[in-house]
Amino acid sequence: MQCFYIILLIAILLALGTQFPIYGEEQDNKMLEKFKILRKEITQKNKGSEFPIMSFNMRLDMHEDDPNNRFTKRIFRIADLFAKWEPYVIGLQEPFAGQLLHLQSALPSYYKEIGYNRNTGDLGHPSRHEDFSVAILYNSNVLEVLETDYMWLSQTPKIEMTKSWASGGFRCLNIARFRIK
Question: Measured between alpha carbons, how far is 66 from 63 in angstroms, rounded to an integer?
Answer without folding.
Answer: 9
